[in-house]
Amino acid sequence: MDLWTAPLAPGPLDALVDVPGSKSLTNRYLVLAALADAPGRLRGALRSRDTLLMAGALTNLGTRIEEDGTDWLVTPGAVQGSATVQCGLAGTVMRFLPAVAALADGPVRFDGDDAALARPMGPVLTALRTLGVRVEEHGEPGHLPFTVHGRGAVLGGQVDVDASASSQFVSGLLLAAARFERGLTLRHTGRTLPSLPHIEMTVALLREAGVEVDDSRPAIWQVAPGPIAGRDVRVEPDLSNAAPFLCAALVAGGTVRVPGWPTSTTQPGGLLPGILERLGATTRLDGDVLSVTGNGTIHGLDLDLHAAGEIAPTIAALAVLADSPTRLRGIAHLRGHETDRLAALAAEITRLGGQAEQTSDGLVITPRPLSGGTWHTYEDHRMATAGALIGLRVPGVEVEDVATTAKTLPDFVGLWSGMLSGSAVLA
Ligand SMILES: O=C(O)C1=C[C@@H](OP(=O)(O)O)[C@@H](O)[C@H](O)C1
Ligand SMILES: C=C(OP(=O)(O)O)C(=O)O
User: Fold this and answer.
1) Ligand 2 atom 9: residue of nearest CA
2) Distance (Å, rounded) from C-alpha 158 to C-alpha 147?
3) Is 357 annotated as a binding residue?
4) DSSP 8-state secondary structure symbol assigned to residue 36
């Protein structure tokens, strides 16, 4: 077992951290570019395990993706069957590509890491079947591995989807829907809907590519059939990956700045400044540089994170170091993320001597004095960065398999040490 001793904060921070591109934007732009009617260019695309898996899968499906300096040039081709899609542990790959594969002229087999076999896929497969696509399951029903038997075209029409376990079920169908003969009307039938900003991101990117989307009725999205424009786009920095760095200012005191912060964004990380202020930070946006300043005091709070579940592990790490208890709500769907994040956080916080209880839809964390020990990461990049954050203040936190951060941030350790040495860190 590979252990990385999380460095203690040397004192108040003063750092500029240039965070690489957004995973969610990169993988959406790649899918849209692959389905477009002309070549496209991605600037600032993230290179990480999840985006390289997406690029590799699209290449297997007939897209040409070339490096041009730091850009990705994407030349669409007819979607090809007799292909395989290796999903790794990437939700965006396993949920976005089945609807693309349905357009292929033959079978496309989807497989992934062992941990990926536990992630829910059923609503995507049921929706494709409703749309007339044959799907063959090879393991536990509603999970990887499976084969989508493309027939070269999808009629489209109306479909009901329960997306309470993941917004990606909706995004994945919408992204390919303009290529269905009749487009798609998708109605979410579940009681809760997580990560709405990520669905809004999908809608925004479709519209930017010239696709007509009607989202005027609650929980219903209608995508008109039509061409998808090949575009030249720039990917915003990954604001959820910025979170551990910005939060480090609350743990260690001092200031951490992240350049390239968008003035408006559909990334859920756009909610961070408001959340960090409630936790005790001061935030400022000077041009496109977000500064977060802390004085070492973190306030516990009651927070519904259903819109931004992705940042919950980072907020949970702050909560264990706070001056009062924290209740995180609205994040039952985290049980289907890279690991059962509610169980993983509760187990690891408890292992260090903290107190964390799972509720039906979140966690209650009561600060207690912590001591060092192994912080298990369960192949979850955000568990690894949460351990690093706690280790800034608690001596001897040994983060297991820190390399798992490569899922979305391959140089996490380098960026983290650069931040601590106070130098400007350029990705
Ligand atoms: O569409 C996307 O890019 C994502 C949607 C969210 O998924 P869930 O709705 O499953 O939480 C988020 O947590 C994930 O990291 C990325
Ligand atoms: C839930 C996450 O990833 P995925 O895209 O694999 O669902 C995440 O990055 O926090």
Assistant:
1) 310
2) 22
3) no
4) S
pLDDT at site 422: 72
DSSP state of 359: E
**Distance of alpha carbon 22 from its chain centroid, rounded?**
8
What digits encode the pLDDT tens for the residues 260-283?
Answer: 999 999 999 999 999 999 999 999
**Which of 22, 23, 24, 305 has most ligand 1 atoms within 8 Å of CB, for mutation?**
24
Given 136, 200, 236, 310, which residue is catalytic? Answer: 310
Q: DSSP of 101-148, one letter per residue? A: HTTSSSEEEEE--GGGGGS--HHHHHHHHHTT-EEEE-SSTTSS-EEE
Ligand 1 centroid from CA 351, angstroms? 28
Inter-axis angle of helices 239-252 and 312-319, nearest 10? 10
Compute the distance between CA of residue 174 and CA of residue 67 in angstroms, rounded to an integer.
Answer: 27
List of domains in the chain: 3-21+237-425 (3.65.10.10), 23-224 (3.65.10.10)
Write the residue with the smallest CA distance to atom 3 of ligand 1: 24
Distance between CA atoms of 298 and 20, rounded to whole angstroms?
Answer: 27
Q: For residues 9 and 391, what is the distance between their CA atoms, to the nearest angstrom?
A: 8
Query: Does residue 137 have an active-site annotation?
Result: no
pLDDT digits (tens, 9 = 90+) for 294-340: 998 999 999 999 999 999 999 999 999 999 999 999 999 999 999 99
